[in-house]
Specification:
alpha+beta; Rossmann fold; Topoisomerase I, domain 2; Topoisomerase I, domain 3; 4 domains; seven-stranded mixed sheet; six-stranded antiparallel β-barrel; 23 helices; flat
Length: 690
């Protein structure tokens, strides 16, 4: 007697309904649309709606934890409890039923390819009690049809991602344990001090592993600005004639100068007092006629390579500068571009391409021929064939990629571009241009450096002129090319102190040789003053988080030293947003500048007195690094958990024993003076609002 075999099916589970739709399209599933899933003869496609499962609050372990008390701290459960999120129970039940259906043999996990996506599925599978099923992980870099099909074809057994899953669970436990224990113990010990001072209702003190560290960076910066004392300084400049043109030389007290290493100097190119600058001019003017000797002429060509590609942090920084939008808004836009198949996966830390992608890169470029803003550039690249050697450049490096390569255009989905907001279209253009730049040669500058002398006092001049624009030809965005390039030019000049010069002056400079005598038209004093540190804006804050609390302005240097930062590309925007929501930080929407609120400064002072380690970016980054080690399999989950529990227990007990109320009052007073109500302000504008 033959037993008829049940027809088995494959189940595909995505993170969102829109993504599930793309998988169904790619797989040609024209089956029935049912409640919460699609089904054909051999396949089922279903979806989560973001997170379906979350960690339970302490009161679910025992009712006694509902009341905040020292007696129930530290809270360190042996086994963690999870529950279905209210509001998504219906979809969870549908997904649970499908995961456990007898005819489902293989489950393809198609949630976002990263730590968070892994966590979303694992929690669902855990709550649904999935057993005895083949589970395969689909890992993709874009939502184009060919990439989806490749991901399914090459799907690995889910167990290959067990370490990534372990690090995701640990990150959630870490945030949970630190958040619950430290927020409760600090609130119990110091919540009244804060609310009494603000004359507000009960004030919970919200702290978190990453959030508190970011708050610390902003408050410290604000206090540095307040305590900064401007120092005036006086530079001496010579105005030199050359063949009907003129240029400036800047005096510096180098070796041989009568002021070399003098205590009267403010750095080597200026004096602390104006009278000393006047004295120098008087000495030099005694010689007539007023002229100078050429001591040194250096001419060289300088190449400027196209920048590395965008990772999420770089894109958030550039978008904050160009479009004045927050990192959270940038992430929403680039996520939308990803879901419309226009760009590759957004939550990436890498700024380079993989070797495999480099081999197929002509497809991305070919697709961009249809993009009106850069179609000609794409044609030009394909005709020149520069894409064929891209694998040998610094823009391709498999070692610098952990989960995903840089954000680049797919060359697809262009028909849907006009349906997006103007800002989304501009962000897309910015990504496209950054991508195409890497197939162009470097920009070439002609540089001339000149040292002239008057009575053994040296004056320095530096000139730069663009000889070959290279990649700059397509770097500037169509919507604001002039303004942006001008801003960038000005910034570059400020940093390098190089003068951009015309052809006539450059030609005259090219002819100069040592010992030539030039006429000095005048010697002048230029007064300057030292500048305080800059406040963070939403973009520079993301970069500082990526670099463990260091704001490294230089893009090349950033790329070289990058290590584990504070938070991850997927979480940084959300952390900033939370700090704005709970009113610890304030965001100026027009300028994107971030400042603390009075409440934020007070929370900083509370943490600074009691759990100072939470404010340390290096320490916070080391926790993140630990999670990376778990994901790589270099340390076990248990080792990490032991360290975490010890940290939480010791610090919680420290706060219980502490008593800084009196000291805090002084700190609060010191901060509050900067948040006084303005005259004529309404009552609502006082207190901790800015």
């Amino acid at each position: 007697m033959q037993i008829s075999k049940i027809m088995t099916k494959a189940l595909y589970i995505a993170e969102k309904p829109s993504v599930a739709q793309e998988f169904a399209k790619a797989l040609k599933i024209n089956g029935q649309r049912k409640d919460g899933y699609l089904e054909s003869e051999d396949s089922i496609v279903t979806w989560c709606v973001g997170h379906l499962v979350t960690m339970s609050y302490p009161e679910k372990y025992d009712e006694k934890y509902k009341r905040w008390s020292f007696d129930t701290l530290p809270f360190l459960p042996r086994e963690f409890k999870y529950e279905v999120i209210p509001g998504v129970q219906k979809q969870f039940q549908i997904v649970k039923g499908l995961l456990n259906r007898p005819d489902v043999e293989t489950i393809y996990v198609c949630t976002d390819s990263g730590r968070e996506g892994e966590y979303i599925y694992r929690l669902v599978a855990q709550m649904a009690g999935v057993k005895n099923k083949k589970q395969k992980r689909v890992w993709i870099d874009s939502q184009t049809e060919e990439e989806i099909l490749r991901g399914i074809r090459e799907a690995k057994d889910l167990s290959a991602y067990d370490n990534l899953s372990a690090s995701a669970y640990l990150r959630a436990k870490e945030d949970y344990l630190m958040g619950i224990n430290f927020s409760r113990v600090l609130t119990l010990r110091y919540g009244n001090s804060v609310s009494n001072y603000l004359r507000s209702k009960y004030q919970a003190i919200s702290v978190g592993r990453v959030m508190t560290c970011v708050l610390g960076m902003v408050v410290r910066r604000e206090r540095e600005i307040r305590s900064f004392v401007k120092t005036p300084f006086y530079r001496v400049l010579s105005k030199i004639s050359l063949e009907g043109e003129s240029f400036e030389g800047e005096w510096r007290a180098v070796e041989g100068s009568r002021y070399f290493q003098s205590p009267r100097l403010y750095k080597e190119n200026g004096f602390k007092e104006k009278k000393d600058a006047e004295e120098l001019i008087s000495i030099l003017s005694a010689q007539t006629p007023l002229n100078c000797r050429v001591e040194k002429v250096e001419r060289k060509k300088e190449k400027k390579n196209p920048p590395l590609l965008f990772n999420l942090a770089e894109l958030q920084n550039v978008s904050s500068r160009l479009f004045k939008i927050s990192p959270d808004e940038t992430l929403k836009i680039v996520q939308e571009l990803y879901e419309k198949k226009l760009v590759t996966y957004p939550r990436t830390d890498a700024r380079v391409l993989s070797g495999a992608v480099a081999k197929e890169i002509y497809k991305n470029i070919s697709g961009l021929k249809r993009y009106s803003q850069t179609g000609n550039a794409a044609e030009e690249i394909l005709a020149s064939g520069t894409y064929k050697t891209i694998a040998k450049t610094r823009y391709v490096n498999d070692k610098q990629i952990t989960d995903h390569y840089a954000i680049i255009p797919t060359g697809q989905g262009l028909n849907g571009l006009h349906t997006l907001s103007l800002t989304s279209q501009r962000v897309y253009e910015t990504i496209v241009r950054r991508f195409l730049c890497i197939f162009y040669p470097p920009a070439v500058y002609q540089k001339v450096s000149l040292v002239t002398s008057m009575q053994k006092e040296a004056f320095f001049s530096s000139f730069r002129v663009l000889q070959d624009e290279g990649y700059l030809k397509i770097a500037a965005n169509s919507f604001s090319s002039q303004r942006i390039s001008q801003t960038e030019k000005n910034t570059e000049q400020e940093e390098s102190k190089e003068i951009s010069c015309g052809g006539a002056l450059l030609g005259a400079l090219q002819k100069l040789k040592k010992n030539d005598i030039l006429t000095v038209d005048s010697l002048d004093i230029k007064e300057g003053e030292t500048s305080p540190p800059k406040r963070y804006n939403s973009g520079s804050m993301i970069l500082a988080m990526e670099n463990a609390g260091q704001l490294i302005e230089d893009e090349e240097l950033r790329a070289q030293i990058k290590g584990s930062g504070i938070g991850t590309s997927a979480t940084r925007a959300e952390i900033l947003k939370k700090l704005f929501t709970i009113k610890y930080l304030s965001l100026n929407k027009k300028t994107q500048v971030i400042t603390p609120t009075l409440l934020g400064e007070m929370i900083f002072d509370v943490v600074n007195c009691s759990i100072r380690q939470l404010l340390n970016p290096e320490l916070t980054a080391s926790w993140e690094k630990g999670l990376t080690y778990v994901a790589q399999g270099s340390i076990t989950s248990q080792e990490y958990m032991d360290k975490l529990e010890r940290f939480v227990r010791v610090r919680t007990e420290q706060v219980e024993r502490s008593s800084y109320q009196y000291a805090l009052r002084q700190f609060f007073d010191a901060a509050a003076q900067y948040y006084k109500k303005k005259p004529k302000a309404s009552a609502k504008q006082g207190g901790n609002e800015k």
